[in-house]
């Protein structure tokens, strides 16, 4: 599937210029041309209005009324609008639904317009901002605990050099990675961008990799232009200080920066210098594997129920974002993994220390995103206070940690990254009140004692207000009207107010009061004393606000100029949070520190699946731990056993253990030892995987082919019921040859779950393959699934036990036993699935012994099922049983 080229995407292009277009329509169309395929929010008074197709799209997404306004080319113009004051929530919904929005504001006042072009002049409007999923900085529109990435995919040269640049502009993090074409999907799946930029000439851009794919002009992707653009953006003479970049990397970064320039329309943008992401130091995990293992999000798209959602105990939003990155991209560098493990270990051993550290971190605000808003010119006093509190807290933390004698080496190396903000923190502490407002407009956020002149202005205002209060008492005295009040409002400013029945006294010419306004019950006056006191208050107030704004600007500049050091400190805090969170979760769930071996092995004792275990725990059920032991001599385990027996769970838990270990965390097991995995693959047979809605068997084979092409002796592969998506014979044949290839060619560690018992014959020829099964037992007529992995192949009687359980008549089961015995005898001889069927006595011949079996097994089994009495899971099982009856040819 690919996204239509840009020209076709914009169905909202201006209709051929209509001669009778009004000036407003002309202005609208010129803005719409600038907005491209973004929805245009056109400011009119207190509303943003949308017209034509934009209006139709917005009205249906937002579920608001679609009306019309005037005519264009003889047709009514569709229109809808959203109030400016609540625009943000509408924007959030539009972005979520996959739209991008261009905001056109009035850029002059009506008076200015009149002065410019006479009384009929239209107020000038311009696009002041684009709001797109990948470029949000608004706190309200962002999810604190997840990164929000914009990515650009560039391909240069005939060699097909491909690179991806990705930025989270809410924190300034900017990375770039060069990839081989076949790795593009995997990298994009790791980054999970909310918006992806591709060249308008790019072909075959898969739609599902990003919520939104945006086509940009080819010129944005020129690597030559990119170099200049990046140098200008970062204000450097050369990019050499950031590293050496290939043409593809330059093109991707350049396209990303060009787009940011375009959407920010002149506003500053926060990007840190680009980091080259080393895919070489990372475990390769392709998109299908990520999806099936549900590392950071479930197949349904949520965070809950994923590995991340289950184990996340971070106490800061930045920690949560880093943990997601870690799980999405485990390491392959042993030293780096050991560094992280040592830190987790140190924190795991000392619960008191861990508790203190976590309490301290929990109190820190999200400084990374506060900094992002300040750099983007959208920050305020509250953001500065957040920096003050976070960096000040970091300083205390640093002092406390430095006193510990046995710091894990990684922590000792990280700590200096918290230094150097003392002067800024002190300045902010002196300058700001404790909890300043988000918005600077009303002032009041600069602390007393920071600026003597400001204090004097505030004093003047206070004195003025006191004088006004004194005047009120004085006027009551003088007029004898006890209900006289001095009030303030936006229109009249300070004024005297008396009930209408007392107004006459003040109306008298020599009263000293001047009439201003008569309302239903009250009459309002001014006086020269009051006017004088009031203007002192107002003047001082205006000056005070201006003085505060000047301080805000200087303080913001001071923070912004240290942005890279601040961002680095935020990273350090996040790393500590992640380690403490992993340690905390490990301790409360009895996890262990994994050992890293130098040879390709995977030895796990008492391994568990954290997500399944957590789900079972909710209903008070116990998870049965299982061991695995893969080595060079025994590297392929074939796991058989009844449906629902725990095969898939066993496979996945071992893949998750590998991911957790190489992300530098403890693992859900009693003990674990593994040789580092370079590539991890997980495949699930098609019928377990309907959610993806593609031609499932085709997908299954494409994905399996990728494993056969890419898995190395250092890789770990789990194959779950591969071959299930097609007919029995095809499926068995394919599963058979895939196992052989994995064993003979790839020589990787592999767990292969299958319902084809015939595959167990492979153990005779493949010496590094061994047979295992999930145990089940019949007990008092019930089939008990033990969820226990044991050696050897499964014995086959459970299919029949299940049939009996399901109410298949005894005669039919008996008949089935006869058929089975025959099949098995035949298989002994030939090894074929259906071998031996030829000399099977006809079904009819056995009717005499088993009259109850007169109907065919399938009908009987069906008749034994009461759909109304089945839970969905049981229904699915029943379906599998029925399919099995057909497959077994019974
Ligand atoms: P299979 O792949 O063999 O059909 P699954 O792995 O899907 O079986 O497991 C089916 C259900 O059995 C799971 O949803 C879970 O509730 C339960 N289960 C699986 N493994 C275990 C285990 N080790 N301990 C306890 N319950 C388990
Ligand atoms: Mg399964």
Automatic annotation (TrEMBL):
Domain DNA mismatch repair proteins mutS family intervals? 715-731
Entry keyword annotation includes Nucleotide-binding:
yes
Recorded hits in InterPro entries, A to Z, give: DNA_mismatch_repair_MutS, DNA_mismatch_repair_MutS-lik_N, DNA_mismatch_repair_MutS/MSH, DNA_mismatch_repair_MutS_C, DNA_mismatch_repair_MutS_clamp, DNA_mismatch_repair_MutS_core, DNA_mismatch_repair_MutS_N, DNA_mismatch_repair_MutS_sf
What is any Pfam family matched here?
MutS_III
Q: Residues that bind ATP, according to the entry?
A: 641-648
The UniProt keyword set, sorted, is: ATP-binding, DNA damage, DNA repair, DNA-binding, Nucleotide-binding
Reported function: This protein is involved in the repair of mismatches in DNA. It is possible that it carries out the mismatch recognition step. This protein has a weak ATPase activity.
Q: Which family does it belong to?
A: Belongs to the DNA mismatch repair MutS family.
Q: Which named protein is this?
A: DNA mismatch repair protein MutS
Organism expressing this protein natively: Sphingopyxis soli
Q: Output the lineage of the source organism.
A: Bacteria, Pseudomonadati, Pseudomonadota, Alphaproteobacteria, Sphingomonadales
